[in-house]
Amino acid sequence: MKRILLLWGVLLMALVGTAQVNPEEDHDHDGHEHADHDEHDEHDEHEGHDHDEMIHGNVWILNEKGKQEGLESAIIIWKGTTDGTLSNKKGHFHIGHNETTDTLLVMFVGYSTDTLIVPEETHELNITLKPATEMAAVNIIAEIEATRMHLRDAMLNQTMNEKELCKAACCSLSESFETNASIDASFTDAVTGTRQIKMLGLDGRYTQIMFDNIPTVRGLASIYGLSYLPGPWIREIAISKGVGSVVNGHESITGQINVAHKNNTMEEKAFINAYLGSAGRMELNGVFKKDFGDHWSSNLFLHGAQSTLRFDMNNDGFLDNPLFQNFVVRNEWQYTGKKGLRGEYAATYHNLQNTSGQYDYDPHDEIRKKLWGVNTNTERAELTAKTGYVFENKDGMSLGSQVSGSYHHQTGNYGNRIYDGQQNNGRVNLLFASEYNESIKQTSGVSFVYDDYQERLDSMNFDRTEQTFGLFSEHTFDIKKKMAIIVGLRGDYHNIYGFFATPRLHARYSLSDNASIKASIGKGYRSPNLLMDNVGLFASNRAIHIEPSQNGAPYGMKMEESVNIGLVYNQKFKLFHRDATLAIDAYRTQFQKQIVVDWETPTQINFYQLNGESYSNSVQVETQISPLKRFNVRAAYRWLEAKTQYKTEMLMRPLIAQHRAFANLEYSTKEKDNGAKWMFDFTAKWLGQQRLPNTASNPEGLQLAGMSNAFWIFNAQVSRHFNKNFELYVGGENLGNYRQQHPIISADNPNSSYFDASLIYGPVFGSMGYVGIRWRIGKK
Amino acid sequence: MKKYIFILIVVLASTTAFAQKSKKPVTISFHVEGICGNCEKTIESALDAKGIIAADYNLDTNIATVTYRPNKITEEQIHRIINEKGYDTDKFKATDEQYSKVHDCCRYRELEKH
Hints:
The complex is a heterodimer of chains A (780) and B (114). With 780 residues, chain A is mainly beta. Chain A has 5 helices and 43 strands. In chain B, strands 1-3-2 form a 3-stranded antiparallel β-sheet. The A-B interface holds A 2, 5-13, 16-18, 20-23, 75, 109-110, 132, 576-579, 626, 629-630, 670-671 and B 25, 27, 35-41, 45, 48, 52-54, 56, 58-62, 67, 104-105, 107, 110-111, 113-114.
């Protein structure tokens, strides 16, 4: 709440700028028709007024009986200007149109600021301010994020802002969840250093991951996509567990993660981050902002990273970390126009090279390239255009369009496997939002998604084209501030899978000011994407077997289909005189159709259609307390049961801990007037035993135990803020130096059919240290 | 030795001076003029002072809620800390000199009366 308020405050600050508001003389006029020549004269001194085009308005509030009352001394000001006025005793005001902007802010302490788009032809305004609530604050924040967003808090679980992300090194998005209890982060294999996330006990592919509200981490980028977004570019990550909004498609099954890039709300002109890790990883990031006139602003993002040092700490003959060279650049333009027109246009280009495998492997050396190794090149380009148009203020009507396209091409070899995957994607999402009244809002629209895949593995060809045309509608009912219900329905027509419907329901009920219950239920669907979803298998010599279930479909498989149900209880309370929170959530994901990924036969991986039950139950308890000033403790425990019917038996899903505990301690010293302070952060994670896939039929010495060991991971970071603009951080990961024993089966003979680096449950690399700087230039 | 006697006297004097003041935390709420997140940050970090256990400034209601130990700090001192940063409370006003310190975006007095 505080965080949201702070953000909201920063926004308000940015909006008001150095505004000086000129109060209107307190005349006791009655009606709306209010024209006083004396006052006109008074306004002559102020720029931007047009005598003939005065706006006469009233600011209202609703009293306890629900009757309208005029609000005195409300501030009415043109956004970004010093041109403003105050309302009189009856709530009445008048103000001239402004030449530079059509965005009018109406604010009063204790009430949500109303932002209106006022076309030139408007001469009368009636504004009812609503008491500030948490939901309103969320709504305002959401408005910064996109051209048009909606009351979302019945869905949202958690947001991680920049401050949270600064608690760890967070080199890329895939590493940003180290201080989050809801998301499990692990490696896909012991060789490539690729990280994947799991939510509610299920693989990250079932979580819809969006960048700035556009689904991005999908298709061939379903796993790698997380590492394409550099951490220092991120402004905020919003995490919703359970089914998400139908507005963004049918793909979210276990949850939605929306990552917002830094944008024109950034306070500094330039942000520079440099990072150096003891494993030889070097990074340089820059985010720059510049305004061009009153309407345009632009952000330039740069990222370069490389790792060239070879390490083999566990002496298995394989590199513990990949060698890589990444370059990512992004340019975004934001338009804030007159007449309620808004736009965000961005282009991003990625070039990534990754080499891993046996210690001496070198793809460019005639002899050393015969060793077992992985060498991949990925090129990716994305274009996104979001345009929104807000109609007259009264009914909150708006139109929005999201158009995006991407080109993705990955080539390379994994040992002897030759992979070549290309995906061309196009997406159009058109939205229409309106308000029936104070408490009922809706968003409806149409979407079209096009994916053309050309995917080859050795002699196998998995080319496919998918086109999905969708219609959707989402209604939000806000009942006396106590209850919010979001009902969503979408219907999609897929060129191969035909028609399917996605109903979803979210509800929030406030038990008191400090306690609320949320519930959600809904369906989700996902097209098969077998290879890249399970890219860890490439780090093994397992033979790929697919049992087709539908002719002409991608990989010959049916679409996956699920229902997710969730219940969340949130409680705020006072402890040690400070605010504390408790959150308990329970989710169940049940698959009606699923592609079982069967690792249970060594030397093989089998994909087949689920015949029986597959589900995941997850319960999490998380609490945050502040036992001392500036000292925060967050602790969480998560239990899960994720089971799937395999060919012969019902088994726990492999490589995920049934029990997981998490604690994060954070302390900062008192901030000096110039912003100088120390910050200390410590994270401890405990992962219980994980089931390992069956290796009993392997020769002796190449078998694994049935279950992994439980283990702890400790991370710590100290950052020194020298002033408001410069900070140095030093940290350590895996301080307990825990390493998985024998992460690679048959490491000494990578050509044997038993070779397998994909059965990984813990860290491969031991303790690792890093140091970095964050430098903000030209901060207001 | 002289030094220790001196310290002892100071300690004794201070304990007697505060003898009737309780160690038990007291929570007070009062109005502070503030308009933006920057104000909130300034007010809250000013209240991060000795004797104050917890402090929260609510920008929506303009109410500061402070929990403190009366034997360590007085209610007036708390108000004065806020004045020091240029902010008016419902009991004490900041001087014009103090007010001149507030950030450009926080000039609440200009907002009220021009």
